[in-house]
Amino acid sequence: MNKSDVRRLLESVKDGRMGIEEASKQIEDLPYKDLGFAKVDNHREIRVGYPEVVYCAGKTVKQVKDTIQFMLTKENNILATRANEEMYQAVKEICPEAGYNSLGRVITIRKREEPLTDSYIAIVAAGTSDLPVVEEAAETASLLGNRVEKIVDVGVAGIHRLFSKMEVIRGAKVVIVVAGMEGALASVIGGLVDKPVIAVPTSVGYGANFGGLAALLSMLNSCAGGVSVVNIDNGFGAAYNASIINKL
Amino acid sequence: MNKSDVRRLLESVKDGRMGIEEASKQIEDLPYKDLGFAKVDNHREIRVGYPEVVYCAGKTVKQVKDTIQFMLTKENNILATRANEEMYQAVKEICPEAGYNSLGRVITIRKREEPLTDSYIAIVAAGTSDLPVVEEAAETASLLGNRVEKIVDVGVAGIHRLFSKMEVIRGAKVVIVVAGMEGALASVIGGLVDKPVIAVPTSVGYGANFGGLAALLSMLNSCAGGVSVVNIDNGFGAAYNASIINKL
Amino acid sequence: MNKSDVRRLLESVKDGRMGIEEASKQIEDLPYKDLGFAKVDNHREIRVGYPEVVYCAGKTVKQVKDTIQFMLTKENNILATRANEEMYQAVKEICPEAGYNSLGRVITIRKREEPLTDSYIAIVAAGTSDLPVVEEAAETASLLGNRVEKIVDVGVAGIHRLFSKMEVIRGAKVVIVVAGMEGALASVIGGLVDKPVIAVPTSVGYGANFGGLAALLSMLNSCAGGVSVVNIDNGFGAAYNASIINKL
Amino acid sequence: MNKSDVRRLLESVKDGRMGIEEASKQIEDLPYKDLGFAKVDNHREIRVGYPEVVYCAGKTVKQVKDTIQFMLTKENNILATRANEEMYQAVKEICPEAGYNSLGRVITIRKREEPLTDSYIAIVAAGTSDLPVVEEAAETASLLGNRVEKIVDVGVAGIHRLFSKMEVIRGAKVVIVVAGMEGALASVIGGLVDKPVIAVPTSVGYGANFGGLAALLSMLNSCAGGVSVVNIDNGFGAAYNASIINKL
Amino acid sequence: MNKSDVRRLLESVKDGRMGIEEASKQIEDLPYKDLGFAKVDNHREIRVGYPEVVYCAGKTVKQVKDTIQFMLTKENNILATRANEEMYQAVKEICPEAGYNSLGRVITIRKREEPLTDSYIAIVAAGTSDLPVVEEAAETASLLGNRVEKIVDVGVAGIHRLFSKMEVIRGAKVVIVVAGMEGALASVIGGLVDKPVIAVPTSVGYGANFGGLAALLSMLNSCAGGVSVVNIDNGFGAAYNASIINKL
Amino acid sequence: MNKSDVRRLLESVKDGRMGIEEASKQIEDLPYKDLGFAKVDNHREIRVGYPEVVYCAGKTVKQVKDTIQFMLTKENNILATRANEEMYQAVKEICPEAGYNSLGRVITIRKREEPLTDSYIAIVAAGTSDLPVVEEAAETASLLGNRVEKIVDVGVAGIHRLFSKMEVIRGAKVVIVVAGMEGALASVIGGLVDKPVIAVPTSVGYGANFGGLAALLSMLNSCAGGVSVVNIDNGFGAAYNASIINKL
Amino acid sequence: MNKSDVRRLLESVKDGRMGIEEASKQIEDLPYKDLGFAKVDNHREIRVGYPEVVYCAGKTVKQVKDTIQFMLTKENNILATRANEEMYQAVKEICPEAGYNSLGRVITIRKREEPLTDSYIAIVAAGTSDLPVVEEAAETASLLGNRVEKIVDVGVAGIHRLFSKMEVIRGAKVVIVVAGMEGALASVIGGLVDKPVIAVPTSVGYGANFGGLAALLSMLNSCAGGVSVVNIDNGFGAAYNASIINKL
Amino acid sequence: MNKSDVRRLLESVKDGRMGIEEASKQIEDLPYKDLGFAKVDNHREIRVGYPEVVYCAGKTVKQVKDTIQFMLTKENNILATRANEEMYQAVKEICPEAGYNSLGRVITIRKREEPLTDSYIAIVAAGTSDLPVVEEAAETASLLGNRVEKIVDVGVAGIHRLFSKMEVIRGAKVVIVVAGMEGALASVIGGLVDKPVIAVPTSVGYGANFGGLAALLSMLNSCAGGVSVVNIDNGFGAAYNASIINKL
Hints:
GO biological process, one term (chains A, B, C, D, E, F, G, H): 'de novo' IMP biosynthetic process
Largest interface: A-B, 39 and 38 residues
Pfam families (chains A, B, C, D, E, F, G, H): AIRC
Radius of gyration of chain A: 22 Å
Oligomer: homooctamer
Number of domains of chain A: 2
Protein name (chains A, B, C, D, E, F, G, H): 1-(5-phosphoribosyl)-5-amino-4-imidazole-carboxylate (AIR) carboxylase
Organism (chains A, B, C, D, E, F, G, H): Desulforamulus ruminis (strain ATCC 23193 / DSM 2154 / NCIMB 8452 / DL) (Desulfotomaculum ruminis)
CATH class of the largest domain in chain A: Alpha Beta
GO molecular function, one term (chains A, B, C, D, E, F, G, H): hydrolase activity
């Protein structure tokens, strides 16, 4: 609502074309509309199609259940990350159609199936130990309406395995690279594709890995262009980010 | 294609069952198609339009000059980052049309002007001290053929300044957020737009900033979706990344 | 007691106006009175109204119970922080009126109800996962006789939620900001109010959060004035500090 | 402007008591007024009496001079921190009455002298090497209109020196403690006063001091209540914070 | 070999100027010979004699069992590191001859006994707490076909114990030094032998040991030549490395 | 045994005054005697009176029991640190007179009572949570034959409590200061006594304490002379060190 | 002055045996005497024989000169550490007999020669690069009246060099070990002597040395008993500490 | 010399077959021979062929010159690392045939040319900025008598460049990998060769590189077997290590 809209509204009031009640309501909405963040509001939380997201770590089973019960009153899909088996069982009681990816620790509730994108997100992982992060990312991307291709166990120690999968990686619109230990896979892929690469360091490893710090620093210092990084083990964040890009 | 496949193919050629054209095509695909990285080669280094990039930090003036002299023999645009005044003077001797952004410490040589994208990259910075990184990013994005909008000095300590610029930020296809100190700007913008946000922590600050570490960790832990991070002060990397996204 | 007081006392002794017993007692008190730390003693530990505080982490159930049993012989209110359910049960046996905030892990024993302050402390938290720290702070502030207003789940990723609560935040005499992850909330609020802001980083988050380090560094580097910081998860310390300011 | 205000305004327009131009203008102002951050705006940057602040580190002499030249067109006092001698000389050219505290690296321009507070801020420092931070804090507090008392060289290695100054420290409304090395002074003072203590770790020291990290961690872990912490060497922040408290 | 080379080759085949055998060989060499990594493939994963390795940490018992079941279909020896008792029991069900070193947490399956090397690897450890790493290294080295000598409990605090074992240490072709705490043993041995020394820091210790960081930094900064370092507790890596050297 | 001793020995052999057996034995002893470290050997491990020490952390109950069973065959006192209740029960089976300090997690077996030193070691601790380290130190010092005085709960937050105990602290020949959190106690005591002060940082605390790192750095940066530091929670090391000094 | 002293004093006043002036003065002295820290005062700063110490780092030449000029009015020896050549020249102007150890960066002014101790302090250093710290320690120890023996370049990489000096090291009453890089020398010596060992990590080294952190951690984790540690490069602190022990 | 050797010697003395002088001399040699470190002595420092090594960092020009002057009296080759131009000029005065590699900052003095090994050491570097470390390694390896092959600018961002050099890398007996930034090259090469790989992290990079820490951690966590690591920028150490292996 810009300056002329306001004028026109006031003229309508003056002319009696619009009642005070209606005008008052429109004006009260202004702060959000004009500042523009109401769109976020609408976009992220209200508009049907975008999932409601619950981060379950550090929450009790009851808290998770109650939150989802409330969400079920709306029409959005629901995504609960870092959810354990017990949480899933509790959710299932109130929503039998809830799905659970035990590896990715993700509960999904699909209230409406969205059409998938034509372009796809490639999720590439160095080793099988990175699978929990891969699955969290894949479930997130999928619920957000993206087509997903997973390529696992193509770590740089056996680089020919990676090359045999380059076709499918190159075909993606955006690539998520998931790797722990030294995280070198992000740099290698960053040098081989000219698509945006979102790197997810994982806490897989031990000793001087320091809970994923080694992979994180490695990815931040990538000598390859086009690589950006999200938090350690943050499969959800990478997929959310990738989804925005995939839908551009 | 294994040994016997090759033999069979050759026998078909010998027998005249397969034409040389067809056989040739199958063989040519072998090394590269299967591995696929030849495209990168073409894409990044050979295809005209992509700039040659020199990272000048830790190089001598002579090394920078020699490298650029060699690059001048090709037809690509040239971008030299982290270049000091002295390096620029040396380059100017061999290439009088070279430009220099002293704030961003970037030398640019435009051998062919590319048409700019319709969509633009917004580069948003918290404070005036972040300008060197902003300029490095802007020069890079521009040389890569992107339209750029710069919005500076909208740090969260005076958040109304940010809101008055939301329109132009929201209009971008991809947003680069440059911030030092506590780097909170990335989270706030990440919550206000639904475009990909590439966060660049800067080393601006002191004490417990630890050379940009505070902003880096802050951005990696952003509670807002859609935010990914590049290395501290890495304006080039953010712009390179943003350019890939902007051209999707 | 200054120089002339001492002289006068000695003259009283010489004149026989004061007995040696009495003078001796006054002189023996000198070191503490003159240095002033007796006041601390009186203030913090003896004066009725100030609670006795037990930090239960790392103590056995028996140690906590014994300590509180001893404290019950005095007239002060009692606050036991970081107390688990089992400790509370043990305390309840010896003091049935003891209260327990299970979220904040705080046992409170109110032996005399203090009148609350007119001004209030606002405790603002980014997310529901920060609630344990919020509750610890709220219980502490309340037992210290402060009126408290809690505002939860106003993290910067949805900044409009924060704005709808600015009225009550601005009305406080001192503001406690509780936030994990990137801790950006402290900077944003610091820029919006001109009251002292005490920031409490929480260990909520994962990966490069490093147990609250990210939020801590973020808050220490806040670009907004008026923000000071206490230890990670230290709701008690923030409230104690806020109480001192609120009662100035 | 609340709901009934809006209604009344609309009725005035309808009744013709208020022109559309005027009403339109009032409505356009809404977003800022209702959200309340316009007050910040007014308060911090527009209201005479609050100084304009320039953080000079990382700025060129010219940038500092230009910024201050612009500020001189307003009526506020001006404070430039982390300013070197050369910057001061440049400022002096355009503002001969500018003052310079070379130890604290602070330029001050007093366009109007504010009455000082009755209560005072005590700035207590462990050693003479902490003086630059003390001076930055003192100049800031003073320009903000606070009475200041400085107590220097009372480090805990000779704790009797501290005790002889306790009277003046206890008399303050708020205490700033400046200490490097192990920063123990903050805990000791925190245990001796019941006023808010703002601790400033300094980078004074060497080796395992790690640029002030030792003092910072020490102060954050203070076993004494009532201690909060600002960034390493941040005398300005401590004073700004103390000023807010002192004026409550 | 470019397009025209291929064409010419095919024409030669068609014309009968080149035999199929010769042409086949030239073509087969294309993908791998030019790139060269096929040898790795053959060497590490296909050639009988090299063990298959499973890193069990972070895997479920079922995952370990399934992986090994698959490996049993090949002819290689199998090594499963970081395997717990439960994993071993599961493996034993499908392969009764599987061995288990409970201290080293290593499952070994020997499908063909390789002849041991003449030269041996000395594995020297500072204390008995380092034994798990020693055993992991010893099992690995042994399965890779190396003769191994273990020398334990020769930490530098009682250096005469080390000297009495120097003969056997000096006799090795390569020396693995395993030490936690301050890791000084690597430097001392590095100064006493002129064989390659591979240092393995262990997480043995507490406090400022920081999970092996102290020993790691110590070993990286060794003042003795000839010392290189692997990850904390990485007995497998040290042995794998030593085996390569021992077989040179 | 110097050159002339050797000559004399050889002459005795030549002259038949000494048998080859005896001479051979004396020569074989040379390496240790001449280098001097045999004394250590004798001193620390063989000479009756010095305890045998077992560090139980990371050992199994059986390993601890077996080690002590072996030690029981010698005449030395035995000290087992970091021992849990279960280990103690196992040891008690083979040595009913074994004592156990459950707070300090120390098993002691006194095979001969040594006379205590006249001078004493003062062990001063900031809080009751530091007691486990205090007890480990006290048991160690006592078994090594030192008189010990414990002064607990004299943290700097209530410094008058410390002053009331200064007499006994000053009377010691060497002072052990045990403190967690910010570890300021070491500096304060270091400034008040002129005896050697051995500081033991403890892991007591949370958040930015980082497992004792805050106290460790604080103590290393102590502004008071005469303070040296041992590892975090290392009560044994402090007492061993203090015992050496106390017996000088 | 205890209770009966006070009574007696008051009785003297009452009886007229002591004037009010005199009694007043004695009472005013009480706080310091009774608390006992006056002794420190007397001991460290007033008693002739103990040097005045100036830490010059971060001070201007003028500040150093002024401080020493003031000190020259007393009768104590003077020690200025971390002093550069320019500072020395300035001091020499006002005190021509001032000495300067350029390697150790120490200015010494001997106003009275103290008799040296019979027992000596051994200062042992790993390499010649550690000499600045050795010299700082040696000058300090010497000025404090200790006999000193320096043993340099006996790093563990050539351990036989150390053994040839064990006699003189064992002869000391207290041993200072100075080492950078991996700092292993402290552990080796700690295992060979049964005297108190004070370890000084130095910042000598590079890379993962992290300014002395590697040696610091190494020494804190020493597996040898009897080793305590001071700050990185803190030769003064080690010598001050050693002097206290040497004079016990 | 073992037990029976000693007996035999004594019998020879008794029988008069060996003179006391000779026997005495043999016995005096015992400590070193039997303990074996005399060999080290001989090997490293005395045996002609092994170079004398001077680490020049932190030394004055005069110290370097004097050290080398002394070394020139022996017959060994001389290697001075981390030497600046000024040091070289000083050395040249006393030894005109001294060579200087300004990039590698290495002075070499060849007093006798050793025959080179048949096998060679491959030194592979990611970028041209790593050249100083490459040169230091190459000069060291060469002076130690090794044939060296340098392969530079084959970083993983353009992995095809690496593949075109695999032949020469695979041909080496031992491979040194030099890389800064994220150090991924070590893992990639480790996966492609089955020779020992010594990884040298370099400090090349900025921001979250933290002076080489990122590359260091990356290399330590390498997912490829056969990789061990030396200190950051330690080209000398890598080459020394590689030389030992190359000569096995």
